[in-house]
Amino acid sequence: MTESQTLGSRIRRLRREAGLSQMDLAGDNLSASYISLLEAGKRTPSPEVLEQIAARLGCGPEHLLELLAPERHDIPQTDLRYAEISLRNGDPETALATYTAVRDKAARAGQESIRLTAEYGVAQALEHAGRLEEATDRYQALLDHAGYGQSLVPRLTVAVALCRCYRETGDLAHAIDLATTTLEEARQLRLTSTVLGVELLATLVGLYCERGDLHRASFLARTAIEEAEGIKDRKALGAAYWNAGAVAHRSGASADALLLLERALAIYSEGDDARALSRLRNAYASVLMQSETADIAEAKSQLTRSAENLASHGSTVDMAYCETALARACLLEGNPREAEQHARRSLELLGTGHRLETARTLLVLAGSQLQLGDTAAAEEGSERAALLLEASEADRQAASAWNDLGELLERSGRAERAVWAYRQSLRCLGQRSSLLPTAGGSSLSPAGAPGTTARPDRAAGRRAG
């Protein structure tokens, strides 16, 4: 049950206990249908509406928000709870406004603990809204002040969030450095065998997997599962299974990947995090459609359920991931027109800051364009995707993108340029000729190809840190 459902069910219970109908509770300024949606957890009331409903039920708004500790029954805590519900219910703008107001009020009152909690909420809301650069700045400022132990904003939590932002923007090197450094700090303080420690370890697994270091990722995935089993925490174990499944999939073991992801799904289905469950369904569907016994129909069913939930609880980035997966499913079904629509919708949702997922979506879009006969657009999109992946140091994914471009060029009869693309693929995998002298970039590039085969500047766009 989600936070919004908890609020809705509490309102419904108190309304029935008071002998009121939904029309009675709606009063003159609301509607019965709105109250119905509210009780079903499909709407988040504004603070003003929450106060009105509480008054009609004969209680305070903090009672509806289940703030049970008497010393916490104050306006800042009520607003923090409301902001949290808004965020979990897929309304980052309302959450951002509420967290910001609480932060500013707490700063003026000298309430440092409340200010830090609200500032972390601001960063979460910015991330949820896809404003990654701003979220990164907020998380970095918090990391500079966050501590361990009983801190209200634990250092491990902020580090995981910051790594997540770096990953989305394609700065894998910075994310791995941060996760590795923080994990070493946690080991020295004996914090790795905790829920947050396992979450950080699982985050590092995902980062190595993205970069293509599957040996290291596999080792850390096994370690994460062992740690999670040791502390007997279901959420930590689910996260460990999730990332281990991603590693298995990238390593070509689709059967193992499906088994691990199914275990993760079973665990997350028991919890109250609708957003995480939907994101996990995205991952499961992606593996399912690319497995040895591919089941496209079941994959699309999973993605449709995911899309419905993310429309209420997810961020624009979550929905973009789902749209890309749906595009891939349509492409595999032989429906390039629908695949193109999903891919373009994903790119629109992603905007300009999400380098890795943009690259993967461009590849799916290129596949649909190729099937629709627009070879030039497919070539352009494939090359752009490969360069984005290289700039993110996702070398294995970049190699695959260059190889796809080579096959595309070969099919269109452009053999010389196809050879050039295949060479880029080999270069990303670390292959160099042992028979030819090192030559300037232009001597290896065919007419019409870029004049150098050197790697793009990975420092470009990377944040200082």
| Mean pLDDT metric | 83
Please identify the top-level CATH class of the domain at 130-256: Mainly Alpha
Low-confidence stretches: 1-5, 67-73, 439-465
Give the count of helical stretches. 24
Oligomer category: single chain
Report the radius of gyration as a whole number of Å. Answer: 25 Å
What's the total count of β strands? 0
If you consult CATH, what is the topology of the domain at 130-256?
A: Serine Threonine Protein Phosphatase 5, Tetratricopeptide repeat
Fourth-tier CATH superfamily name of the domain at 130-256: Tetratricopeptide repeat domain
Taken as a percent bin, the fraction of beta residues is under 5%
Specify the helix fraction band. over 70%
Structural category is mainly alpha
CATH architecture classification name of the domain at 130-256: Alpha Horseshoe
Rough outline: globular
SSE order: HHHHHHHHHHHHHHHHHHHHHHHH
Distance between the termini: 39 Å
Largest sheet: none
Explain this structure:
It is a single chain. The protein is an all-alpha fold. It has a domain of about 130 residues: Serine Threonine Protein Phosphatase 5, Tetratricopeptide repeat (Alpha Horseshoe), CATH 1.25.40.10. It contains 24 helices and no strands. The longest helix has 18 residues. The protein is globular.
Essential attributes:
single chain, 465 residues, mainly alpha, Serine Threonine Protein Phosphatase 5, Tetratricopeptide repeat, 24 helices, 73% helix, globular, disordered N terminus
